Amino acid sequence: MTIYSAIFYLLAALIIATTALAITRRNLVHAVVYLVISFFGSALLFFLLGAPFLAALEVIIYAGAIMVLFLFIVMMLRIEESKRRIFPLSQWIPAAVLCVIYLGMLAVILSGIEGDMRLETAVAVPAAFSMWIFRHGWLAVEIASLILLVALIGALHIGRRPAAADKKEAQ
Amino acid sequence: MIVPYSHVLALAGIVFLMGMVCTVTRRNLIMILLGLEIMLNAGALALVGASLRWMSMDGQAMALFIIVVAAAEVSVGLALIVCVYRRTGSVDPNFTETAAPEKPSV
Amino acid sequence: MPTVYADIPILSAILLICLGGLFLILATPRKEAARIKKISAVSSGLTLAAAVYLFFAYDRGVGGLQFAEKISWIPSLGISYFNAVDGFSLPMLLLTGIVFFTGILTMWELTERVKEFFALVFLLVLGVYGLFMSLDLFFIFVWYDVSLFPMYLLIAVWGSTRKEYGAMKLTLYLLAGSALILPALLYLVVASGLDTFDLLQLMDPGTFTPAQQRFAFVLFYIGFGILAGVWPFHTWSPVGHVAAPTAVSMIHAGVLMKIGAFGVLRVGIFLCPEGWKYWAELMGLLATVGIVYGVLAGLRQTDLKYVIGYSSVSHMGIVGLGLATVTVDGLNGAVYQMFAHGIMTALFFSSVGYIYDKTHTKAIAELGGLSKTMPKASAYFIIAALTGVGVPCLASFWGELVVFISSFRVYPLYGTLAVGALAVGALFILRVVQKTCYGPENAKWAHLPDVSFGLAIPRMILVSVIVLFGLFPSLLFDMIRTASIPFMAGLP
Amino acid sequence: MTTTATLSDPNVATTLAACAAPLLAFAAIFLGARRFARLSAGLSIGAVTVSLAGAVFLLAANWHAEAPQVFSASWLVSDAVRIPVGVLLDPISLLMMTVVAVICFLVQIYSLGYMAGDPGFSRYYGFMSLFAWAMLSLTLSSSLFQLYVFWELVGLSSYLLIGFWYEKFSASQAGKKAFVMTRAGDVAFMLGLFVLLVGAGTLDVTAVNGPAAARMNPSLITLSALLIFGGIVGKSAQFPLLTWLPDAMEGPTPVSALLHSATMVAAGVFLFARLFPFFRQSPAAMGVFLVIGTVSMLLSSTMAMVSRDIKQVWAYSTISQLGFMIMGLAAGSFFAGVFHLTTHAGFKALLFLCSGVVIHALDTNDMFEIARKKGRRLKLAMICMTLAAAALAGIPPLSGFFSKESILAALAALDNPIWLAAALLGVLLTAYYAFRLIFIILFPRPELVQPESGRGHGSGHGAGTAMGSALVVLAAATLALGFAAAPLARFLSGDPAAAHPGPHLPWLPYAGIGLAAGGLLLAWFEFGRPAADQKGFVERVPALAALFANRWYIDVFYARLISRLVDRGLAWLCAKTDQRVIDAGLDAASKHIIRSSGVLSALQSGMIQHRLLVLFAVVVMLGLYFIA
Hints:
The complex is a heterotetramer.
Chain A: H1 3-24, H2 28-48, H3 52-77, H4 89-112, H5 126-136, H6 138-159, H7 163-170
Chain C: E1 3-5, H1 10-27, H2 33-57, E2 65-74, E3 79-85, H3 89-106, H4 114-133, H5 137-158, H6 163-192, H7 199-202, H8 210-227, H9 236-243, H10 246-271, H11 273-299, H12 304-324, H13 328-359, H14 370-373, H15 375-389, H16 396-410, H17 412-437, H18 453-471, H19 474-490
Parallel strand pairs in C: 1-2
Antiparallel strand pairs in C: 2-3
Chain D: E1 3-4, H1 10-31, H2 37-61, E2 69-77, E3 82-89, H3 91-114, H4 121-140, H5 144-162, H6 169-200, H7 205-209, H8 211-214, H9 218-235, H10 244-247, H11 253-262, H12 266-274, H13 276-280, H14 283-304, H15 310-330, H16 334-362, H17 367-372, H18 379-393, H19 399-412, H20 418-442, H21 465-480, H22 485-493, H23 507-528, H24 542-549, H25 554-602, H26 608-627
Helix pairs in contact in D: 1-2, 1-4, 2-3, 2-4, 3-4, 3-11, 3-16, 3-21, 4-5, 5-6, 6-9, 9-12, 9-14, 11-15, 11-16, 12-15, 12-16, 14-15, 14-20, 15-16, 15-19, 15-20, 16-18, 16-19, 16-21, 18-20, 18-21, 19-23, 20-23
């Protein structure tokens, strides 16, 4: 076991544990915070797997922007604690069944993968990655930026309190 | 030498599963969205691993786009949640049944 | 069978008149109810005139299909607009014309949503006319559904007595029927391998194997039979009749039920003669049960329209029995009975409708002594009742007689039971007549007006048709024979 | 044997005119003349006069005709079913036609007085015309289908006329009862026709009576004869379908006279006579007919002995006389039955018309009530009624005596003497109940008689001229018709000797007279003589009297049968089956479909998580699929 694999398993354990904590929290703020930790773990893993640029993005966008957005919303909405069962029976029983099947399937698939090829360390330096992506996928990048723009406008529009509509409804 | 690729896939798969469980079982729109994020992240994880496995930039590019899409989706999704909350006063995904929009007074 | 093409497309003209009437009604402002009624009366009268013309212009010496019109529509699927009439469909066209016209006149005093009512009736009758004259399976199915769909609205909006329930039940039943017909049609069209929906091509002997015919015939029989009130698929009939407004009851019992029987004949029997022969005995059994059952169940009813509904079940059973004999006589009698029953029920429902409009009750126990207050209205009712009882020299007697004779020859037991039902039928109908029309004058109804001259016209037309065909049944039998004899002779 | 005539033949043309005239009158009355009472009556009487003239002309023209004449056209041709329409002129149809026309004519004249002022006057004459048309056409039918058609129409007009006063519950009830009971017989009749059609291939009267039936299987002949006889039982009110006739007396009295004594009910006997050669081929069936005729005759005589209603007595006597006719025919004597039919038509119509005068004048049907109101002061009516009752009882030299004698003679020819004994008992009972009625009315107990007379109806004008003239004509016929036996016999069967069928028994007429006189004397002893307490010997045995008065509980039996078996049994079963089995079954089926579709619709609950769950499941399934 190399140091890299040790780090991998450590990070993997961290990710799984924090994600599991995140999805079981009743308190949304806690959940978000645990998830931030999970995403940090992911970022480290990206770094380990030779994607430093993505690792940075993961930290900035996922752990930073998205999770903060969640936090804002959670705080803004003042959602009262639900007293109900956190996992309603009617939903988690089929989900659990499916999980078991899924896990079994996962095991089967992974054990069946030919060769046990180990990953070698390598790094895609950000500059090279950027060159590559603008050379091969410039159109996709443009589209992605457009998507972001559209999302921005859409979110603005949806989130705006429709004053006129409210008045109409009130009548 | 880090780990076999299958271990990365296993990790991604388990995280994806947890995201899915969260999405399917939590009766809260925000948690559903969180679950979605987890699933997307799991996908990105698998892609980055694959990128290393085949020594190709494609996987990382895909992961990049996933992050973009996640950002866009989250902004719109959260806006929708806010909207729904304003209309119904709840973030229960079952709002169509439990808290129908107040009917115009007859 | 010769096919004579028409110089003037009279059949299409009938459809166009219906369609034109429909559009005219839709174009007329809602407020001008009187004009809508006039348009309806004139258009329906024109279709009646056309039907009468066809009836007498049909060359009985030549026979076969006449006044044919054929336009290829979707050649790749073999669908064509193909209309023609023969001895089976002409009486039905005439019946439709009469019932349509008289039904429109009967509703002359309607005040509620006049425009929509007449528009829907026109749509309904458009489908009925189309079905009777079409010889293309695709169009037959389309017309069938066109005639069914307005029924729901007509009953649910203008009906009475549990109208939503009745309308829903009726619609579900009939849709279930059409859900059986469509697969059977498609099955046959595909099985033939001819790539055509043309009935004439498909009915060539040898197109289908006997096994295919047996299978398809069951679907056709049940699918169309539901509409014809075949026991045990009849329970929609009393409920639907009770709920429907007068004209709709008239058209429904008078014409729509015949669509069912006619569909069994035109599609089921024409396409699957082997299946027909194979299942005939069972058909006879069901029909006989229906005949006996209808009169017996009718004995217990307390609502006037229920009584008529059950008598319809019984009378349509006679049609079914005629079809089940697999003889020329049986076919003749069945088609004649379809016609006679249509006219008779139309009269029945129009007179009951009048009584209901004035007294606002259909409960037999509450009525009584109507002959004193409204002698004309009750006279029409009594004439209809006597026709239903099967008094000779009124139309339906001959159909019953011919069916009974032919069924007695083929199935002595069924024939005997069916004849025996006559006595119970007399008991049950006369009991109703006695309770509604006879008895001391009922003070509750003393102020009610009798049938006015205008409203008497449609009823007089119906009565005179009943008497005309009762005295001269050969008018119709000669017509039907031109179709039934070659058809039976052409069977392998 | 028969000659086929064409439409231009004077006989056929006359027949058609005679038949069609009442139909035209019927149509005219209901189409336009309803509001004009006199016009309606005029139309109807005019039409029946035409019929009468035609009938008399035909009878005279064919008095010496050699062979029956047939005119036939097609009414309806289906394929194997062919229904001809035609005219068959032979002695029996000519005789019956004349009888019908005469009685119709007289009754319609009589009704001018009887029905005057009734609100339904026009309707009455319209129905009378309908009846005349149907009955005349029935007698002349050349095929049994045609006969059946008019048979039913006669039943229809009977229904309409019995229920003429439809406001009265009992009248409408009686009309319905008559129609349904005769319909029950007609079902058998129709089935009999079908059997005959299947067996012989034709329903032509001459063919059925001749060669066609001879080819039939004997058991089929018996079956069809018995079934056809079912129709006769219904129409002629024989046992067991006899109870409608007394109830039918709810109709106006002229209707009772015309339909329910003289003509319509005689249609059954007429049919018997019409198919006499055919029936004769089945001795077994003839035996059954004999039994039914005898039973009906005796049963109804007993019922007549206790009735207080004057019309009902005559109704029972009609059943009993019809039973006599059927006995005569079943015994093998064509002439005896037909002759009694003819004479009976005369005197029974007379009896009813006389009763009508009395009822009209005194407004009651009860014979004791009539006596109390001094019914005997209606002299013309009482004389005629006594005369007719004597004819009914078989007192010479009235018509009834001769016809009854020939029936007795026919019965005497049978091997088994029991039939003759039963008939002789019937003669005794007939005389008894007929004169019981006469004596009760003629000799009221003095302590009962009202001092004041009637309600202003004087004795003199009980019968107006219209009514009176009809009585006189019928009384003359009753007196004279008996002597026409020999010529009638020659006309009917070509042999004058047929008037006295069977072995010549010199004592038979004396026995008949003796028994009739015995009955008369018994009636005198109990009701007529001044010291009599007007209580019959039957009434001294309460159980027997109750049995007779309740018509041997036949009605009770039918009422129970219909209410228990049909109404509460079969009909209940069917109606409940409809509600509880078919409808409920379908409702339950649809309920289950809705419920089971609820399982599927859970996936469509609109809750996104359920959809996601399904999505998840699909992903898992797809994975499994790809692994496998």
